[in-house]
Amino acid sequence: MSELSEVDKTKRLFMGLGSIAIGAGIGGALAYPIFQFAVGNALKTSEGGDDKNWIELGSLSEFEEGKPTAKKITIEIRDGWVKSSSDETIWVVKKGDTFLTFTATCPHLGCKVNWVPERSEYFCPCHNSAFEVTGERKPGAASARGLDSLEHRVANGKLEVVFQKFKNLLPTKEVFS
Amino acid sequence: MASPAIPQFNGTLGKIYDWVDERAGISEIMHELLDEPIPGGTKYAYAFGSALLFIFALQSITGVFLAMYYVPSAEDAHKSVEYIMKEVPFGAFMRGMHHYGSSAMVIMVVLHILQIVIWGAYKQKRELLWLVGAGLFQLVLAFSLSGYLLPWDMKAYYGTVVTVGIASEVPILGDLIKRIIIGGTEMGTITISRFFMVHVFLLPALTAGGIAAHLYLFRKALPAGPFNMTEQEAMFKVEPFWPGQVFKDAVFSLVVFAILAYMSWSTLAPLEPKADPSQTQYVARPEWYFLFLFQLLKYFPGSTAIIGSLVIPGIVMAVITFLPFLDRNPERHPLKRPFVMLGTVALLAAIGTLHLLAKRDDAQNFAAQIKAQEEEGARFLKEPFEPKDTSRKALVAAAPAPEAFVKNCAVCHGENGEGGPAGPKLVGIAKKENRSKEDIVGLIENPSAYGASKMPPMPQVSATDRVAIADWVHSLK
Ligand code: FES
User: Whole-model pTM?
Assistant: First the structure.
């Protein structure tokens, strides 16, 4: 097969390129569905509607003036094919007649902040972010913004919040849903 | 090593190629892989092996991605497959490719074997090549048996119950084997988990090794060439593997791919409701390519059962596996090998006949039930996806059944509407067509008007009670 005629050469070229084209075609035809499949429902924004889901934190009398109290709430989550419950912590501070409510999730990269009474600050041990009792970011904190406050109201003598998640890192609060 | 298969590059590209080639030896590998001489020239008849490799690759890719969502547990397996089918973008397509691909694999392996048998291409020092091939054939069947259980729907459950039952017919060790396969005495999560591990880790690893050995031995033995040429004639007409045979293989694989993609688009891969061990009316049938084996079982009742389930299939498999040792005649022309050719035709005829008998038997005796099952499966696939609710809210216990239900309905439908030998299950009935609360109120008084003619009319139940029953039945999930 050392001597190939011109006809043979054209035939070989056609078959060679044809094989490569078929391979590429099949690969391409598969790549799109596979990509979509793998991404799955990751980019779907949750269809919560406009109805706010108010979650009860407790009676007003439970909260001490000026002292952050941790309140556990249970939220409903949709996890693939499962609807399940998950717990979250909310920090509540009473200031006279008003309340401050923060999610315990650190706005930096998402660890949880704890209240440190000795230093009178919320502290995130992951990358040393400290926050004032009012939620403001203390100088030197790794986080670019203060703690994320949650919308709250008082109804029938109970304090209620709307739980949300927020985007990491940004200097201003943005909802992640 | 001047080879027409190796690309020639000039300039910078040529320098880069040379640099890589000196270190990685691409030219050498390409020469090994692509310049192999094919005696007698390239043919579409030789494309089955490559097509098998192609389908195996497709099954691997779709399988790996399906494993992104599938969960091997009795709790979640069925729900996760339903999620793939109904909620994941292209999920039905991906599962379709994998489902129909398994049939394609079986069809292709049979065509491949037939081509080798007709061509007498297992002869002339190709025993090892054939033995490895026979092993791969058995692995394909093992793939299909182990994959059948994974969706954990009715058909998966009962199909596997039968398969495991057959394994337990092995004398003396049967019980032990059965326990080891299902992981105890209960078919459930441990069983699924075992089948999953075998299906996605063990068998693919064995198959990959088998394919490597098969290809190596094939290259070592060289293709056998046409059966109607002498070796000299065949060597005179020799053609290299690249590009002629590669092109034919690619065209054939493209046809296979197009058929699979079309089927996956146009017809949803079946998924029935979740496995329900209490169902007494379900008619269990294996995948179509095992139907002949299922039919064979019927001819060996009682203590002779093992003949149909293990002895005959075992002997046939042994004959196939050791064919090159049994048929030592060097003659390759099919018309000059009456024993093997007639044996092959007889085997195919027997399989075909058994298949048709199984079909006829079902059409005569179980047509209504099988049709009902198919409709139930289709209805289930159309039903909107309802996530499994494990939230704390859902754990609040369901209300107890009203007294009128306990008195009048529970005998047949079960105390919690779970269904019984005489009455279908009522759980989830709210989602069925023509079963609104009003329909159920009416149905209790006059069942046949609502397509439930098997149920006796219940005029003794008062109108208020009928409403209470309908309300409660609708709350069952
Ligand atoms: S996550 Fe809290 S400081 Fe980094």
Answer: 0.85
